[in-house]
């Protein structure tokens, strides 16, 4: 009896500690979130560029956008918007996979190239998140303008891809010049991360949303979403789009764009868009 009570008391203490930790305010470092011309130029210059072997005479090329080589040929391009951790190894691995598996070039603007760029440990106030989202959207729009200088880009096969923080920019972009959108690890709905979804997706745009069923940030499993009707995917937002697909995987991890089942679905989706 004593052991049972002890175990119950311990479980209650752990639960209370978890709830308090979940409700504890996060932290920010740095201050810069201004989408100035200089800042946007830096995010583009230091963007991670990966060119497939088909453009490079048989050998894949990786480097910064400012060092992009002259190439002959034409290829689809994926503009990749990274999450809050920047151009992390997962982003670079994803770009290499796009090149090797699909023959697609990709470029990932580097938001953290901005000096003193504000970074955060969630949760922080939604006004700060929205300033971040405004910067990321400006980075995406700047990248789409910059790629016009690359003659090898197939203008009809430009795809937008984003994960987590970067997925918000991809989902909110209101332009009609993208062949498709890939929205990883965000749910296109009202949650702690935004004041409102404010999606810019057209009614018949090809969209793939992939997210974990128990995503630690954007599912109902996160107590930060407790006062909102969170479903945990873009299904409701995209229900009237005949070209939209939603993949909810049985997992509780946040970064999923390189998981085998997500790569398989992404490849199938992109082949349908890029090679109809």
From TrEMBL:
InterPro entries per the UniProt record, alphabetical: AB_hydrolase_fold
Signal sequence range: 1-21
Alphabetic keyword roster: Signal
Protein name: Dienelactone hydrolase domain-containing protein
